[in-house]
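We give the entry.
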Amino acid sequence: MRQLFVALLFLLAAPAWAETRDPMTHFFQPKFGDLQAELDVAKKQGKKGIFLFFEMDDCPWCQRMKATILNQSDVQDAYREKFLLYPIDVNGDTELTDFQGKATTEKAFAFGLRVRATPVMIFFDVEGKPLARHTGPVKDKAEFLLLARYVTEGAYATEPFVKYKQGK
């Protein structure tokens, strides 16, 4: 009887396990350190642009988003379909090439974009132009998916995200 109970618990829990995946391997893509070259990849793959997630190790909101939103398979699939996705450590000394081809570090790149808190999410078009920026965590998965829709539909050009959310 106990084996049957354990098997039943496993079956009931399995769908939840199947819906979550590690965000570092299934949401974010491997970084090559050259954002200018990534623009070419985004163009060739027909993406809307590049999504950068500015974070730091000790940020509880960044960790919460990774544990509750960025680990969801439907979120991962939706974002990967439209964007190339990269994390940027606002305290990081890792070298990278920015969208203009200039050598810098993750920390200096973030500072140059006026990222002062985390998380900050910025969407860039395939030319490296910032389209939309969201500072702070999103409430839940639905809001994060709506943020992607806000960008892909082009609503960022006519209204702020707060107003867009009210109409949905």
Q: What stands out?
A: The CA atoms of residues 57 and 154 lie 32 Å apart.
